[in-house]
Amino acid sequence: MAARKSERVLVEEWRAMLALHARTVGELDRVLDRHGLGASDFEVLDILAEGAVGADGGDASCLRVQEIASRVHLSQSALSRLVARLEKEGLVRRAMCAEDRRGVRVELTDAGRNCHAEARPLQREVLSRMLNGTGG
What we know:
CATH architecture: Orthogonal Bundle
CATH topology: Arc Repressor Mutant, subunit A
CATH class: Mainly Alpha
Strand content: 5-15%
Helix content: 55-70%
Number of helices: 5
Structural class: mainly alpha
Strand order of the largest sheet: 1-3-2
Shape: globular
Distance between the termini: 34 Å
């Protein structure tokens, strides 16, 4: 019986985590919409903004699509469509990798950097509220 209860608790915790994720993504989509972004759009811009400073403190300025893919929870095709849309909106630009002609690098444009800077406080506020248990 103890193992059964433990399993039930585990499943309840899992479902609570999924529900929190769904509520948080919904709130992010609602709040970020005023900047023309969804939660996944912002996540890609945020990863690129973080990647703009390399590990050595220098300017990394862009990331390979594979580097972005390893950090977002999207399929490769969904990420490619998202990047194409962000590029069409002028928020990112794509270029071939100099070191590997099969790879594609993505970088923030000035407009993307500005959009990210404006949306970031809203996104962080939603995360803070939702993850501290004071939101929806």
